[in-house]
Amino acid sequence: MRDNISLIAAAAGGFMLSIAATSIINAAPVTTLKVQPSSSSTPAADLRFKPVHPDEPVNHTLEEGFSLENSLRATEQIKGALNSFRQLTEKSKGVLEKKTVSEAENTDPEMQTLGFSNWVGAVEGTLKKQDYQVKKLEFELAQEQYKDGKINKAVLDQKAAQYQQAKREFQAVWNSFRIAD
Length: 181
Description:
Layout: H1 2-25, E1 42-44, E2 47-49, H2 58-65, H3 68-92, H4 98-103, H5 109-147, H6 153-176
Antiparallel strand pairs: 1-2
């Protein structure tokens, strides 16, 4: 499970950074990155995406499903599921043999109190850090675009505000994050 969460965090981070890098290379803000639909797959920069579900367009998956907000909601759901698993493990101790409980992975108290907390904290911290990095890159790009006359002051100010907000949020996560040991 630890590897799965790490893999999910790495994949999400890599995806967000690839979009930011693509935006910089194309000299366009991420908000203007448009996915072009086609019959079999959808290109986005140098990637091609097929719908992940027949009822969900690729744009929805990219813009909503893989958004920071949805990822943070999913992290809260994972936290709730881990708490449920911890409660179920505790209740099973009087019903199941100790050997049976210990054979299931991630049932020892240390893992459930320390490991679970650290895993979720690492994912939340990674998401906020990557959002901060993306917003910083977008703001730096916007500064260059403003100098070149490609965007107006309102767009530059919007990017500055988004960067400052992401900076405050990442700092808040950092200030509240503790490694349980």
